[in-house]
């Protein structure tokens, strides 16, 4: 039996670092953002250029140019999602099948908009990473090219942190430092192993 854990959280909450701790623990992780990056340099580039002329250069999607269009236009964002989401979902499906075939007991799906898109239905449980709003804002605004306006636009497209936490099986506070987060991940891995064992016993 393979246990599928969804990992999600709002921007700046520490999801990428947390995914890294799962990898440290030997857990295979599918990174939806990394999948999008790969697609922007491959299969998604041509259809994106067709839908949004001038947003690719030398066959690669210019993320900044594309972002200026879709972040300010809900309809444009939906057109982009209609192109990208099916490709990301297929990459995720292929990853899960490969891991299952290899006998993985636990797989993590690292998806920024997991709850917003109903992706939690593909998971056995959900872990939400969280931090105080002040910490989140400080982290995000420290990123190159980030502005308060862009930060607020991104937040507007995500479920509020409180609602994400309410729907989670586990919540990991990432504001206490890397060591604490790493221990939290190890606790979740053990808890998932316990659930796998219980399910196997009941069969």
From TrEMBL:
SUPFAM superfamilies: P-loop containing nucleoside triphosphate hydrolases. One of its GO terms (cellular component) is cytoplasm. Its main location: cytoplasm. Keywords: ATP-binding, Coenzyme A biosynthesis, Cytoplasm, Kinase, Nucleotide-binding, Transferase. It is found in: Cytoplasm. GO terms for molecular function: ATP binding; dephospho-CoA kinase activity. GO terms for biological process: coenzyme A biosynthetic process. Pathway: Cofactor biosynthesis; coenzyme A biosynthesis; CoA from (R)-pantothenate: step 5/5. It catalyses: 3'-dephospho-CoA + ATP = ADP + CoA + H(+). Its EC number is 2.7.1.24. ATP binds at residues 12-17. Belongs to the CoaE family. NCBIfam families: dephospho-CoA kinase. Catalyzes the phosphorylation of the 3'-hydroxyl group of dephosphocoenzyme A to form coenzyme A. This is Dephospho-CoA kinase.
């Amino acid at each position: 039996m393979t246990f599928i854990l969804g990992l999600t959280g709002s921007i700046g909450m520490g999801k990428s670092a947390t995914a890294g701790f799962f990898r440290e623990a030997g857990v295979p992780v599918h990174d939806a953002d990394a999948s999008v990056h790969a697609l922007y340099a491959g299969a998604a580039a041509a259809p994106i250029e067709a839908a949004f002329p001038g947003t690719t250069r030398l066959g690669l999607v210019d993320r900044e140019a594309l972002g200026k269009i879709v972040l300010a236009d809900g309809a444009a964002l939906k057109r982009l999602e209609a192109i990208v989401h099916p490709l990301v979902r297929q990459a995720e499906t292929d990853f899960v099948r490969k891991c299952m075939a290899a006998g993985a007991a636990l797989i993590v799906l690292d998806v920024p908009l997991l709850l917003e898109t109903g992706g939690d239905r593909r998971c056995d449980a959900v872990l939400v990473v969280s931090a105080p709003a002040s910490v989140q804002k400080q982290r995000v605004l420290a990123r190159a090219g980030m502005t308060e306006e862009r930060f607020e636009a991104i937040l507007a497209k995500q479920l509020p942190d409180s609602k994400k936490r309410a729907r989670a099986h586990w919540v990991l506070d990432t504001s206490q430092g890397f060591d604490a987060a790493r221990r939290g991940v190890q606790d979740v891995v053990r808890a998932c192993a316990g659930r796998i064992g219980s399910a196997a016993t009941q069969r």
